[in-house]
């Protein structure tokens, strides 16, 4: 199977939407053309279909800069032993989400409970962040934005430990290390995707609506 025939992911759609947004700002596309192409991006099934929407744009033919791969373990001595923040759920649920400051070490404990750590809008004060998770008959979910790197080390005892490895495009981007054990429970870490395209489409529709109303009012 050729690469162009592979199924497109949300990350692929976000990349194409970024190029279209820049083309609109540079004046290469007008608002109507941009809206039409973004709608096509949302409906595209394969990578080849996505590439068709930017084939006539210069950004589609630039070579992306090489990025250094983040290490699978934090550098020695970079992370303190004591946590900056602890999220505990015992027969209950606990969350960290929205606009909050992520410390260098976060501990999460789910004992017959559920813990959600959402870093998609968090403020990263340090490049390396360790999340230590323990789940016993519980569930720990960690979500990160796509502009950081994600690494995982751990396992499960009659449980599930799953981390989707993620590499950021910027070499100096934060790196989140998720480590832990799930005993008859679940621990998972994944990037939070799909919001960028939806936000762009909403802004385009508002801009097109204003343009239509302006012409009708003449």
Q: How do you describe this structure in short?
A:
The protein has 218 residues and is α/β, with parallel strands linked by helices. The chain folds into 2 domains: 3-64, no CATH class; 85-191, no CATH class. It is built from 4 helices and 12 strands.
| Fraction in beta strands | 25-35%
- The backbone outline, from C-alpha atoms, is elongated
Radius of gyration computed on alpha carbons: 21 Å
Global mean pLDDT:
83
Total of helices: 4
Please bin the fraction of helical residues: 25-40%
Strand order of the largest sheet: 1-4-7-11-9
State the end-to-end CA separation.
53 Å
Total number of strands: 12
> Structural class of the helix and strand makeup?
alpha/beta
Major sheet size, sense and barrel closure: 5 strands, parallel
What is the string of helix and strand elements? HHHEEEEEEEEEEEEH
* Tally of domains: 2
Point out poorly predicted stretches.
none
